[in-house]
Amino acid sequence: MSRPTSLTPPPEAVVPQPHPDAPSPGTELGEHYSDCFGCGEAAPGGLRLRTRAGEGVSVDAEFTVTAQHQGAPGLAHGGLLTCAFDEALGAIGYMLHTTAVTGHLETDFRRPVPVGSTLYIHAWCEAVAGRKIYSRAVGRLDAADGPIAVEAAALFVSVGLEHFVDNGRAEEVRRVLDNPDLIKSGRAFEVNP
Ligand SMILES: CCCCCCCCCCCC(=O)SCCNC(=O)CCNC(=O)[C@H](O)C(C)(C)COP(=O)(O)OP(=O)(O)OC[C@H]1O[C@@H](n2cnc3c(N)ncnc32)[C@H](O)[C@@H]1OP(=O)(O)O
């Protein structure tokens, strides 16, 4: 049976506060996993997105579009823009002190994003209902107050360590368990509080 894919928080959802141990605004969040395509330094051709803690349950990131990110000539590929938003929205987990995976993600492309431009991404959590985290993000062109180029809305679902251990390919899971430094933040595989 297929699941509902609504991005509207249910009536019992609450507006969350940052976890008491959440990083303070402006703190660089770093890569969560060295081979992550969205943020990992070791991922070939990856986006290497850097996120910072924002006010409340929010994060900020800048994504500069390079020639490697093209879809049409001189323009960013929409799928890669979505990846950047997935990454930024996922980093909201730092503010809630939970590890969450994307359940549903919608992206609205409002303006073309040229190669060489920088998207200023602001992502925030609207509501939490149990394991479900409802978040939104906006990407502005070339300045924090620039025109909106991309908007996204997502449902992330909190998961525990077993999600990764049980589902990841054994080779990479073993490599990480043998060398926890590969999870730079020490957060991505952390069991929920
Ligand atoms: C901290 C460091 C960070 C570090 C930063 C991390 C950044 C990561 C950025 C990248 C993030 C990714 O790309 S993650 C990779 C892409 N995503 C995935 O691979 C996830 C694949 N999907 C799954 O594994 C699963 O479907 C789950 C875990 C999402 C849910 O399965 P489950 O655990 O069995 O739970 P389940 O009962 O089905 O669902 C829980 C609740 O969520 C609802 N739900 C589940 N999926 C959906 C959906 N698509 N649309 C609506 N609702 C949904 C269910 O109805 C239910 O509601 P109710 O009955 O409770 O009301």
From TrEMBL:
Membrane topology qualifier: Peripheral membrane protein
Entry-linked CDD domains: PaaI_thioesterase
Keyword presence, Membrane: yes
Localization of this protein: Cell projection, Ruffle membrane; Cytoplasm; Membrane
Domain Thioesterase: 74-133
SUPFAM superfamilies: Thioesterase/thiol ester dehydrase-isomerase
Gene Ontology MF terms in the entry: hydrolase activity
Biased amino acid composition, Pro residues: 7-23
GO annotation (BP), single: fatty acid metabolic process
Residue segments, region Disordered: 1-29
Keyword annotations of the record: Apoptosis, Cell membrane, Cell projection, Cytoplasm, Fatty acid metabolism, Hydrolase, Lipid metabolism, Membrane, Transit peptide
This enzyme's EC code(s): 3.1.2.2
One Pfam entry name: 4HBT
Transmembrane segments: none
UniProt-listed Gene3D superfamilies: Hotdog Thioesterase (3.10.129.10)
Catalytic activity: (9Z)-octadecenoyl-CoA + H2O = (9Z)-octadecenoate + CoA + H(+); decanoyl-CoA + H2O = decanoate + CoA + H(+); hexadecanoyl-CoA + H2O = hexadecanoate + CoA + H(+); octanoyl-CoA + H2O = octanoate + CoA + H(+)
GO cellular component: cytoplasm; membrane
InterPro entries: HotDog_dom_sf, THEM4/THEM5_acyl-CoA_thioest, Thioestr_dom
Domain of life of the organism encoding this protein: Bacteria
Entry similarity comment: Belongs to the THEM4/THEM5 thioesterase family.
Protein name in the entry: Acyl-coenzyme A thioesterase THEM4
Species: Embleya scabrispora
